[in-house]
Amino acid sequence: MEEKLPEHIAVIMDGNGRWARERGLPRSRGHLAGVDAVRALVRECRRLGIGYVTVYAFSRENWRRPETEVSFLFDLFLQFLRQELPELMKEDIRLSFIGEAGDLPFAVRHALEYAMKKTAGNRSMVFTLAISYAGREEILRAARLALEKGLRPEELTEEAFRTLLYDPALPDPDLVIRTSGEERLSNFLLFQSAYAELYFSPVLWPDFGPEELKKALTSYAGRVRRFGRTDEQLR
Q1: SS3 string of the chain?
Q2: What is the pTM of this model?
Q3: Where in the sequence numbering do the catalytic residues fall?
Q4: pLDDT tens-digit profile of 121-130?
């Protein structure tokens, strides 16, 4: 692709349930198809040379879903982590995580920690899973840490605050994609997305393949990112 590419793409994967319902299938089938779409996204971004991909896999609000669905989703996470590790190693992709690790079932947390340790030396791309994640909670958590550290008001700069986030090394997303026609951030990367370009796709997540990604990247390439500057300053 010749157009300019974002360094970091963040994705709000929405529409698994509707995808299944439209086909007369149980929600679990939609989640299974959604995992296939994640695999396709990561591989395509790796092929294009995009350095960071972050997916909103499970919000803290998602804990309110039926217990059977939550249990199925965490079984799916566990299966995904175990199956994808060889591919992550082969493609030189580092796995990362943001969210409340203490919320996760032990087996999932252990598999996640193991996969992160195994891929820690990989350098070609960083693939971040946001699980039991909430943007407001991340900000509150950082504020609490600042208080615990005894930071004075004048010391709490944007740079200092960033060091208190779940992953201080994760760059701000250049492009945030949301699927299924919904047009909101839903508590995702609120601090980091201040200047992100937003792309809303009508396509349900399981159907969001390489061609749909190309549409999002083409839209991004046609935008001018000003960061508060005038056109004259950008010239």
Answers
A1: CCCCCCCEEEEECCCHHHHHHHCCCCHHHHHHHHHHHHHHHHHHHHHHCCCEEEEEEEEHHHHHCCHHHHHHHHHHHHHHHHHHHHHHHHCCEEEEEECCHHHCCHHHHHHHHHHHHHCCCCCCEEEEEEEEECHHHHHHHHHHHHHHCCCCHHHCCHHHHHCCCCCCCCCCCCEEEECCCCCCCCCCCCCCCCCCEEEECCCCHHHCCHHHHHHHHHHHHCCCCCCCCCHHHHC
A2: 0.94
A3: 14, 62
A4: 999 999 999 9
